[in-house]
User: Fold these one by one.
Assistant:
Number 1:
Amino acid sequence: MTAATRRPEAAARRTEGTGRAACHHGEILQGVFRDERRRPVHALVTLPMHGPGSTARFAHRPGSAPDEVTVTPAGRTKARAAAVLAVRECAARRGAEPCGGELTLAGDLPLGLGMGSSTSDVIATVRAVADSWGVPLPSETIARIAVRAEGASDPLMHGSRPLLFAQREGRVLEVLGAALPPAVVVGCVLAGGAPVDTLSLPALHHDDDLAAYGHLLRMLRRAVTTADTALLGRVGTASARLRQRHLRHQEFESLTGIADGTGAAGVQIAHSGNVAGLLFDPRTPGLHDRLRRCTRALDREGITPTRTFTTFASPLSEEFPWTNTSRKPSAART
């Protein structure tokens, strides 16, 4: 038997697979918008974040029922549901009998802060199952599985492009461009990093909301097209302020005051959690001094700084190191 004929058989016998998924840092914009059929649809545009995320390993358990999936650590029910759905999807595509297995998750994401931790787990899981079956699944299929497993999903399976994504339907409404405008983000957590139950948050339906969010979407389109960081900051702040009617973050005015006082373009706050960020234009004169003053001001207000990162490729640990030497970031680091 030649090497060329052995390789497909080896792939068919594979019983383990791995997958990984990134996270995000909350939303730039989230609300209700008109879709292509003029229906009101809940949708969002996330702020991508490179580095932290979830990894998954899936091992088949031959002869078991497809819903016999155990997960470690225990309690990751959404990831388990995604594994069962992905097993059935992959088996159907291979024309084979599905079986259960063992799912192991690892990652460095805090839960319930609005960084897409559950979606990251789910996507990593689906990718691990698909890898174990040797079946490549398109992003649209992963999104469909994620929504069925979670009830709502972030668009992490589509990469880091800015998308208007209907999180409860798992579909892309609009590709806004190749990348968000360049920004340096000083991340922090509000409310002491307390978790938020995403699905318990109130929805938006009013005609006034449709008009307001439609206006912000047009602003964001222009910001992406022209790489306008200042306009990006205005959209993030306005969207956070609208959502403040429901989230009622006590630190909101302090956060926006710090942004104004340090020359930030604006703020963004997870619309389903307590992670937040101050957005700076990397071309701003005296940027490093502004970042230092920002982290110190957050400390003074009792708001925990986490990590400074960018919306563009950058060796951040060297280019924008932590400049607040009064203390190290807390365990809530994102």
Note: Residues 207-226 form the longest helix (20 residues).
Number 2:
Amino acid sequence: MDGDTLYSIGELARRTGLTVKAIRFYSDRGIVTPAGRTPAGYRRYGPDAIARLALVRTLRELGLGLDTIRRVTDREVTLGEVAAEHAAALDVQISILRLRRAVLMTAAATREPTIEEMERMHRLATLSEDQRRRLVDDFLDVVFEDRHGREHVAAYAAARRSMTPELSGSPSEEQVAAWVELAELSLDAGFRAGVRSLVDDHAADLPDAPATPPRPDVVAVTRELVAAAVTSGIGPDSPQADPVVERLTSACARAVGRPDDPTLHAWLLHRLETANDPRRERYFDLLAVINGWPPPEPLAPMLDWSVQALRIRTTR
């Protein structure tokens, strides 16, 4: 290309794909300057204007503002520096959009949410890290604090950690939506009372001094012993369920140091009915999403089976 060739705005428009109006606008802003003028006063541009306008067009399509583009074209900053700054700004915007979409998706999954519910969802989604921590600590304080003797502090500290959500600095939409639902669940007075009751029941099963090895929780014992019966399709009211229930009550009696008698059977039925709260299972499902853990094994099928089997046999 001849370095002395000059182009009119119309010719630049044809070569760059920009409109005449856009090129005139960039020229008026000093982003691309004319190399000269015709005797009639029309602007003429050198060959470098084509490359400059191509850069301007690319940067504009990437969302950069005119002031930033001028700094690049005037070589005040490098393209790499601008790209890094803009990428960081986009990360913030993406995070905000994820939060907004998560709130809207959560609202869409709720039957006819009220304005107050929408506001609460948005507030929970936009809490700072410190605010999220305080909300979670308040819930776990209600569940665990000042409930048990010093000899079991370590065990309950571990249980508390296992129930603590840790939302990352750049969560996915799914994680944000899970956080909003979990936060609402943790604020529910009925759910708080139910989880606290479970912890108290478990504490009542513990010996005065820590056992070595530690005693298993009866819910964990139930899951282990009943899973095979549920998987194989044995009905809780069938004769084939009798030996399963016998093994279950015997193992739970050993776990809590009580005789395997009708009183224990009634007690175990109550414990498993209390534990069989779908909100509890939902909490741990949401916790796994937030923390990036594998999804927990569903507990409800084993608890449903055990409750039915025990109820049938305690009323005979």
Note: Residues 228 and 234 are 9 Å apart (CA to CA).
